[in-house]
Design brief:
Elements (H helix, E strand, L loop, with lengths): L2 H20 L6 H12 L5 H17 L4 E6 L2 E6 L4 H7 L11 H13 L2 E2 H8 L4 H10 L2 E6 L7 E5 L1 H7 L10 H9 L1 H13 L17
Antiparallel strand pairs: 1-2, 3-5, 4-5
Helix pairs in contact: 1-2, 1-3, 2-3, 5-7
Amino acid sequence: MEPAQYDRRLTLRALAEALLFEAAGPLSASDLAQLLSRGMSTSVRPDEAAEVVAALRAELEARGSALGVFEWGGGYRLATRAELAALLEAAKAPEARVRKLSPSVLETLSVVAYRQPVSKPEVDFVRGVDSEYTLSRLVELGLVSPVGRGEGVGRPLLYGTTPAFLDTFGLPSLDELPTLREIQQLLADPHFSEERARLLSLAPSPLAPPDPAAPDATS
């Protein structure tokens, strides 16, 4: 291998790591190739960018880095490894901990994710309560957005998940959502309950109480 080529690959790998670190969202191979081309003042193809990412991922794994390169939400992300998430959360000061979704909001998000495109009346029917607050909260968080209108009376808005939903939950696509059967098997596994209890003991950050004025805040 030519020294110049070797140096170029090292520089590409370092630049790719920096770009992924600074990116506000996932970067596709095409997006990353454009940024690398601009930074290197030379042409970098999308397939070459993908090779650079693969080399960076292998390097991070080999040195036992807390970070890894993951592919979700339509692109690559540099993020903390899953096995460190609970420890990292527990290490933070209480005011710095991530605010988690309330059970009612998470329930609404699950209905939208599995039945999309879905209208508010359909979500209400599945949940058995009014979902006005939880849907508006999910739209505010950017996890759900209107995707059209239904054919029923009044042509209600239809909701679907966004790329931010995939990014937040580390999913390459909606096809990677676990099936309902897989969820049932997971919940029935005694090891799941044990692991959940262990993680809660490591990161016991309390959820902020939901808005008492919300229609289903206590659901």
